[in-house]
Structure formats: structure tokens, C-alpha cells
Write a structure and sequence with these properties.
- This protein has 398 residues and is mainly α.
- It has a single domain, classed as MFS general substrate transporter like domains (Growth Hormone, Chain: A).
- It is built from 14 helices and no strands.
- The chain is globular.
């Protein structure tokens, strides 16, 4: 029996748009904190806020987009998000102080949240049910590529050119996303599904209850990973490993790219537990190594383990959230997943920035390595112990 087609035109187009948008996010995330310190004299906590406000904005964008995306239209929502993304990017050229940078980071994140919720919802619609885990794994690789290229390019450009050039590149990528979006064509969902669950006020209009347990796991894991996104550059400066740090996200992403095709198929065939528990173990070891090394090789090896760990936790939990949900609520399931992901990535830098002066970066990463164990325990309690086999058959929608 032949497999249902996965690599359709719309799947490739939406993945490309997601790549461009995420590339801008990761290009800026590793340098914007240092920029705030050097340009405005920001403290570590303030620089973490500059990083995190983008993701907080994305969280807000997802919260309301998940509710309205089906009534507004998924393609239309994508255009609204991308256009807002372009407008927010142009505001980086306005230099009137740290408070304005705070506001712009929030607005930029808001636009990203709208656009990326649209791409995540659209791609969940076009992936065949029997290949959900594999398809979302491949789609997530578009973001994984961005996590490799973005930080690498961002750190390289920050050492060789000014921020206006970097902002110009980000603006060009936003415009390219808009041009690409015109090629997206989607069939409508069945009419009876689109009109369901519209009356009254319910919390289920804003989040998908079935996705919340697995999203909580994502929140804790993302909180740990936010320390890598926000402070790896500062930590590398402290260790005198700046030249090595630019390759950290490259090896991280290579690890994810190599592993994800296998982990996606394994999840569809055997269930999520076969991917999640090894991923938690690798994530924990990677964080502990990162917190205890002064060696460039071990520094990069930690990036490989974190990629194998968190990179696969992220795609696996997203697939679980979508598979637990009926087709007409995929938008809410996707936004719920990303709300919790963004909560961890967005608030994490600010909260962790408050304790960095007490612990230092090395001890911070060591402590967070232990927190990963907590995330694994939560996964067992909230999902893993139920013995659900997360396959296409078990999650086929009635």
C-alpha cells in the first residue's frame, strides 16, 4: 500500500515561509541582548527582557489567533501576520531608546505569533493523518534550519557590520515571506466543522483543553532551553569561546536534522514514549555538560546533545497536541502548543536573568539540567503513563 503524499506544493511553500520568519527570529535573538547592553547600557535582566518580549508578543498573538483563525480564514491570517511582521521590522531603524525597543520587540513578536500560528495550522491541515508525526517533524525542520543559519549569521554579522545592515536583511526576509505567501492555495474545511462550537464564551475558544497537558511539558522544557538562546553568547564570552559559540546552533541543528526523520517515523509507528524519554535524557546530559565545560569541543558536543534532546521534544510534543485534536480545532491546538512554548521561551530569559547574578552562567545551566528531570517526570504523569500509542491509527479523527 502506497503512502499518502506528504511533499505537496502547499507543504513546501508554508515550510519555506516558516523558515524565513523563524530565521529572522533566531538571527536577532542571539545578538539583540548584547545590542541592548552596548547601545543602551541594559542590565542582564533588561537584556533578557529585550529578548523575551518578542516571544511574549508571539504568545499574545497566538492566544487570539487560535480563536479567530478559522473564522477569519487561514490564508488571510497568514497575510495579516506577515505584513505586520514587515512593518514591525522597519521600526528597528527608529533609535529612540530602550523603552521603544521593548515596545517594538513586543509588536514584532505579536506579528510573528500570528504568522507562525497560521503556518503551523495550515501545515497540520495539509499533512496526511497517517503521516502526522513524520510530517510535523519535517515541517519543524524548516525552523531547525533557521536555528542553525540565523544565530550563525547573526553572530557573524554582528562582528563584521552594523545593526542597520542586519535589520535590512531581516526586512528583506520579511518581504520575501510575503511574496512567497501569494502561492499558498488551500481547500476549505467541511462546513459543519467550521461552524461548530461558536456560541457563548468558553475558555476552549482560546485554548484546546486536550493539548494543555502535553503543552505543560513543552513549557518546562522551553524554560530550560531559553537559557541557551538568551545567554549562550554571554557565557561564551566568559569562557573565552566566542569563536566556537557561533557554531553552537549549527551543530545543534545538524543533530536535529539528522535525527528528526527517524524520530518522526518512530513516533508514528511505535508511539511518543519511544522518542520522548531518550530525548529528555539527552537534553539533561547536554545541559549538564554545558554547565561544566571550559573546552570548545565539549561546548559544541553539548549543543549536539541539546539538539537531539530539546529539538525532538519540541516536534514530538507538537505532533501529540495536533493528533489529540479534531481537524476543525487544529488551529487552537497549534496555538495552545505555541502559547506554552512561547511562555517558556519568552518569560524564561527575564526570570533566569534575575538569578544569573547569584548563580553565574555555569551553575545556571547545571541547575536547568536537573530541571529537565522534572519535565520528564511531568511527562510521565500527564501523558506517558497512560500508555497511549501515539500513532496515526490511534489518533485518526472520527
Amino acid at each position: 500500500m502506497s503512502k499518502e503524499k506528504l511533499w505537496t506544493k502547499d507543504f513546501l511553500i508554508v515550510s519555506t515561509i516558516n523558515f524565513f520568519l523563524t530565521l529572522v527570529f533566531y538571527l536577532l535573538v542571539v545578538i539583540i541582548g548584547v545590542f541592548a547592553v552596548e547601545e543602551y547600557g541594559a542590565t542582564p535582566s533588561q537584556s533578557g527582557l529585550v529578548v523575551g518580549l518578542f516571544i511574549v508578543g508571539a504568545l499574545i498573538g497566538r492566544l487570539f489567533t487560535g480563536r479567530s483563525i478559522d473564522s477569519m480564514g487561514r490564508r488571510r491570517t497568514l497575510f495579516i501576520g506577515v505584513i505586520a511582521f514587515i512593518l514591525a521590522t522597519t521600526l528597528y531603524f527608529v533609535d529612540i531608546g530602550l523603552p521603544f525597543l521593548y515596545i517594538n520587540r513586543l509588536l514584532h513578536g505579536l506579528a510573528y505569533g500570528i504568522a507562525s500560528t497560521a503556518t503551523g495550522t495550515i501545515v497540520a491541515q495539509v499533512i496526511p493523518v497517517s503521516r502526522k508525526g513524520e510530517g510535523i517533524g519535517y515541517y519543524s525542520m524548516s525552523a531547525t534550519l533557521a536555528t542553525a543559519i540565523g544565530p550563525f549569521v547573526g553572530l557573524y554579522l554582528s562582528q563584521h557590520t552594523g545593526m542597520n545592515v542586519i535589520f535590512s536583511i531581516c526586512l528583506a526576509l520579511g518581504i520575501l515571506s510575503l511574496i512567497t505567501a501569494f502561492a499558498v492555495k488551500l481547500p476549505s474545511l467541511p462546513a459543519e466543522e467550521e461552524t461548530a462550537e461558536k456560541k457563548g464564551f468558553h475558555i476552549s475558544h482560546f485554548v484546546e483543553p486536550r493539548a494543555i497537558p502535553i503543552a505543560i511539558i513543552t513549557l518546562v522544557a522551553a524554560l530550560c532551553y531559553s537559557s541557551v538562546l538568551s545567554y549562550i553568547n554571554f557565557y561564551a564570552i566568559e569562557l573565552n569561546l566566542v569563536s566556537v559559540a557561533s557554531f553552537f546552533f549549527l551543530v545543534y541543528s545538524i543533530a536535529v536534522l539528522v535525527s528528526r526523520p527517524f524520530t518522526g517515523r518512530l513516533m508514528d509507528a511505535r508511539g511518543a514514549n519511544y522518542v520522548m524519554y531518550p530525548a529528555f535524557l539527552l537534553f539533561m546530559i547536554g545541559m549538564l555538560l554545558l554547565g561544566t565545560t571550559h573546552n570548545g569541543f565539549i561546548f559544541l558536543f553539548a549543543g549536539v546533545l541539546i539538539g537531539l534532546g530539546f529539538g525532538n521534544i519540541q516536534s514530538c510534543t507538537q505532533a501529540i497536541a495536533v493528533k489529540l485534536t479534531p481537524p476543525h480545532r487544529m488551529g487552537l491546538a497549534t496555538s495552545t502548543f505555541f502559547i506554552f512554548l512561547d511562555g517558556g521561551l519568552g518569560f524564561g530569559p527575564y526570570l533566569l536573568g534575575l538569578i544569573v547574578p547569584i548563580t553565574g552562567y555555569s551553575m545556571l545551566y547545571t541547575i536547568l539540567g536537573l530541571v529537565v528531570i522534572v519535565a520528564a517526570g511531568l511527562y510521565f504523569l500527564l501523558h506517558g503513563k497512560k500508555g497511549k500509542v501515539v500513532t496515526a491509527q490511534s489518533f485518526a479523527h472520527e
